[in-house]
Each structure stands twice: as structure tokens, then as C-alpha cells.
Specification:
Elements lengths: L1 H21 L7 E6 L2 E7 L5 H13 L7 E5 L3 E4 L21 H4 L9 E4 L12 E4 L16 E7 L1 H4 L8 E6 L2
Antiparallel strand pairs: 1-2, 1-8, 2-7, 3-4, 4-6, 5-6, 5-7
Length: 179
Amino acid sequence: MIWIVRYSITSGVIFLILITYCGCGKSNPVAIIETNKGKIAVELLNEAAPQTVENFINLIQQGFYDGLTFHRYEPGFVIQGGDPKGDGSGGPPWKIPGEFQIPELREKMPRHEKGVVAMARTANPDSAGSQFYICLNPDPNRYRHLEGKYTTFGRVIEGSDVVVLLRKGDKMNRVKLKR
């Protein structure tokens, strides 16, 4: 009887240690993008892009994205939004570093494929601020030229059917964090 109790306690301790050290007990934050076409849930990947995720969450909490439009639609490629000017030239008054430049993080980032969310930027690798795009094509070969050059920081986990309906001019009514 004592052996069984010891075994149970030891198993429980090992389980708790595994959860603590592997990150299994932690869940990634989820952003809900409420559009005029429906809702999209995006899992934000902290481990892959911690500064980018922190920036995205900060913008959400400020209400930055509420009311903005998707300003770019490339059929079979991407839908892009997050520009307060609505023409692809705007953003917040700061820029964040391109975390794709850090090999340890780049290894953790999902490859560009349908449903992956990444930060848009100019030719300057450290020029991202608020604009993001969602990949529309299931063929990762369509995105080969983007691999390792953009920070991928999220993945659509619900609302893929909504994403494919979005077009230039569609609105992000509200963006919030799932509680």
C-alpha cells in the first residue's frame, strides 16, 4: 500500500515538473478578429515571436485595430490589414524588430501556408508595426520567397471560412483577446 501511494505522489510530481518545464500547461493567447464577414480566431505564438506577439496584444488592448479595414487582397496569396491610413503606408509611431532574423526564433516560426499570420514590413527588416497578413494558399511553395524574411507569429484556428471571404475594404469591427 505504501508503495502505491509513493508511486502516485511521485507520478504527480513528475507530471507537474513536465508541465512546468515543457510549457505544456501554458496556452498561447488567442486574438478574435470580428469582421463584417464573421469572426476569426488567431492563436498567437509566443515562443516563435515574443516581441511581435507582445506588440500585437498591446495594439489590441489599445483598440488600435477596431474599425480598420483590410487594405490589400491578393487572390490566392494574402489578405492584409492593420494600417490606420488604409493604404498600406501607416502604422503606430514605433517599429518592432524582425524576429525572423534570430535563428532560434525563426526555427520555431510556422512556415507560410494557409492560415498563417505574419507581420508586413517595408524593405527594412525592422520596420513592422501594426500591419499583418494572413496567408490564403494551402501550397507552401507559393510562399517560398517569403520564408525567413517575415515574422510569422500566429495561426488561424477558427474562422478559416471567413478568411477566404475577406476582400480589400472589408472591416475589422473589433479585435479582442479571448478570455
